Amino acid sequence: MAAVVDCSDDAIITQDLDGIITSWNKTAERLFGYTAKEVVGKPVALLVPPDRSDEEPAILARIRRGERIEHYETVRQRKEGTLLNISITVSPVKDDRAKIIGASQVARDISAQKDSQEALRFMAAIVQSSDDAIITKNLDGIITSWNGSAERLFGYTVAEAIGKPVAMLVPPDRESEEPGILARLRRGERIDHFETLRRHKDGTLLDISLTVSPVKDEHGTVIGASKVARDITHRKRMEHELNQARQSLSAANADLEKRVSERTASLQRAISQMEEFSYSVSHDLRSPIRAMKGYAATLLEDYAHDRMLDDDGRERLGRIVRSGDRMERLINDVLTYSRLARLETFMQPVAVDRLVADIIQQYDNLQPPNAQVFIRHPLQPVLAHEPSLTQVISNLLANGVKFVAPGIQPRVHVWTEACDGHVRLSIQDNGIGIKPEYQNRLFGMFERIHQNKEYEGTGIGLAIVRKAVEKMGGTVGVKSDGMTGSIFWIELDRAPETK
Amino acid sequence: MSPIKCDLLLVEDDENDVYFMKRAMAKAGLQPPIHVAINGQDVVDYLSGTGRYADRAAFPLPRCIFLDLKLPFLSGFQVLEWMRIQPKVKEITVFVLTSSPEDSDRKRARELGAKAYLVKPPTAQMLLDMLQHLPECLPKDATGAVPAF
To answer: Which of A283, A294, A339 shows the shortest C-beta gap to B16?
Structure first.
């Protein structure tokens, strides 16, 4: 008997009715850390933590009344002070005459059991509070558990759901899904984030993402499944809306592109028709002008000396010739403009220093005593179409010396400066300037700011400048306070370094 | 200066320009026989001696032609192209006389075999310069430089 007691997995302790330990087995030694020698003869209260000091007298009182205490779960203290979860069963011990003389106490360590219970409660709390619906079912597809989110998501209470087939959540057109899922589960497979539709108690359809895992018993046999269902209605709606937005955007884009290319084509047709028109009109206008001028000139030539024409007659014929000249200049400028517009501009490095020198040499009115042009050498080379650039610089220099107050010698300064990969060529004059409010009209066709007859011009010169510079990918502008002259500038790409 | 004997054909649809040409000739002291064709088809007829130009005595093949480019029916360029493949006609010296200062027109005229390119209006000096190409037509006392394009 003693051997049996010693070999038991449980601690077995006997005590008398005063609570004094009378025996102490090997398991008790292991469990509590005291040897039999240390505790036999001591009060059993030795094992009781201070906050439970009233437990032992109560147990003894019940023992005295002949009662048995079964599987009482409590806490005891080891020799070294740590606490121990145990389950105790206390039975009265009687003598030959059935008189109660003490008690036997069987104590079992339930710490491990306690931990796993704790873990289970913890798990249950997690499951219950999860935002995802968590459902378990057996292999027949019958619901065996149902958490709070499942209630919220599907509308069925726990009572309504447990014991019902999970198929009640499946819409009719998806009935084929469930047998497939069950078959995969039986094979032990897991189904991850399967997006599908399920039905709420009120019949509305829900977009959900399902993760289904097999649940196995301790032998590894699949006995059911846990289902985690996440409501993705919102995400699906967002995806749908995003998709629609993307589609309508790309449709709008395609439509826009089509319209832009149609408009561009029709604009290009219109522009080229207009250029064609101005070219041929200008050509056709030249011959009558030439005839008028020509006949007036012959009259002057043939009749002037013979006094058949008086001064007044000569003056009027002179006016015809001058008007014809002006008309011819206008036509030539329009032609130049339309020629520029139609021209293919081949860009190449141009030595601006040489170009400006050539232009000045070509025109008397850019040279002393008519005018002075000061060049701040060196002028940086640019990437340009040389004939166009010649036209541009000639026009700007001619303007620079033209618009000066009477009696003042025109003085024009020319320089370049590098800015940001470009070269800015500036032409500054000492002329009458352009008021800021007129400057934006300056580069338009037929815009003449100065109505004064002294400043003769066609109003096309700067339009030509702008057209030419823009054809070369450059920009053009003016700075003037309207009193002390103007600075006209153009910006073009810098010519690449030559080796 | 003495009048020259070479026949000239002026191809010109604008009667004002015909007048100015004749006047410039007179100013230059040249009074060659000037025949006038008024459009591209007309000049082809003249040079082939067909239709109303069948009489070669009245309408002889010219020594040189002053050719306008903008012409009704056939353009001056088309006339030049046609002339290049006509055995007798291709030897005739052609001066283009036009109101177009376009480089592209100038280039095309040279490619098609024109001897010179003149921009209207014609002047006496311009005509004297042209005749340097035709020494046998030039009056002995005339002066001028051989012009280039």
So the answer is: A294
Pair of tokens at residue A297: 């000139």
Strands (E), A78-221: 83-94, 100-109, 133-138, 143-146, 191-199, 205-216
Rg (CA), chain A: 55
ipTM of the complex: 0.78
- A286 vs B contacts (CB less than 8 Å): 99
The Cα–Cα gap between A373 and A354 comes to 14
Query: What does the pLDDT look like over A271-328, one tens digit per residue?
Result: 778 777 777 777 778 888 889 999 998 888 888 776 788 888 888 898 899 888 888 8
What would the pLDDT profile of A319-361 be if each residue is shown by its tens digit?
A: 899 888 888 888 888 777 777 777 777 889 999 999 999 999 8
Please state whether beta strands B64-67 and B8-11 pair in parallel, antiparallel, or not at all (unpaired): parallel
Each domain of chain B, given as residue ranges in start order, spans 8-137
pTM tops 0.80, yes or no: no
Q: Which residues of A are less than 8 Å from B16 in CB distance?
A: 287, 290-291, 294-295
Q: Could you give the CA distance from residue B5 to residue B57 in angstroms, rounded to a whole number?
A: 14
SS3 A75: strand
Could you say which DSSP state residue A134 is in?
E
The answer regarding whether domain B8-137 maps to CATH 3.40.50.2300 reads: yes
Q: Does A339 touch chain B (CB under 8 A)?
A: yes
Are residues A130 and A36 in contact, defined by beta-carbon separation less than 8 angstroms? no
Q: Which domains does chain A have, with CATH numbers?
A: 2-109 (3.30.450.20), 130-231 (3.30.450.20), 242-340 (1.10.287), 343-493 (3.30.565.10)
- Is residue A279 less than 8 Å (CB to CB) from chain B? no
Mutate to test the interface with B, among A276, A280, A281, A290 (most CBs of B within 10 A): A290
